[in-house]
């Protein structure tokens, strides 16, 4: 069973699995050279991932990944031979905000290079992206707009990395 299948099962929503079925994958290799003045450089600016799920392998166990929690940056200590699984913006939208994407950044190390492999899981390119209908009802309104996956990707990749601003732009504003 896939990671997304497990998440869909917990929410009792087969629709989530269907959105990502026959979807796309993208892989990126990240290399951050050692920097004698790391306080002057950010390896990767704060952002949340636009995919559904990101699976990250930190190769040489050098610290650098940080997440924002309650306004503070917290380091994620790499564990040997372990994967980090990040919820991305697309899964946040499909789960109507039940699963949240997390803002993170990559910092450089003063004496060691850092390398990681990231695999991103996306829905089908010609699919539709919006809250799963099984997670929207009289008591729970849709928290995000529905759009095409293609349009969502164009918007996400067409802007600068800037926190969680893109997923926030997809929110529905209710007058309750």
Automatic annotation (TrEMBL):
Alphabetized InterPro entries for the sequence: IPNS-like_FE2OG_OXY, IPNS-like_sf, Oxoglu/Fe-dep_dioxygenase_dom, Plant_2OG-oxidoreductases
Keywords tagged on the record: Iron, Metal-binding, Vitamin C
Any one Pfam family match given in the protein's UniProt record, by short name: 2OG-FeII_Oxy
GO molecular function: L-ascorbic acid binding; metal ion binding
Top-level taxon of the source organism: Eukaryota
Organism, scientific name: Lupinus angustifolius
Iron recorded as keyword: yes
UniProt KW Metal-binding keyword: yes
PANTHER family: OXOGLUTARATE/IRON-DEPENDENT DIOXYGENASE (PTHR47991)
Domain Fe2OG dioxygenase: from-to ranges: 22-123
Protein name, entry field: Fe2OG dioxygenase domain-containing protein
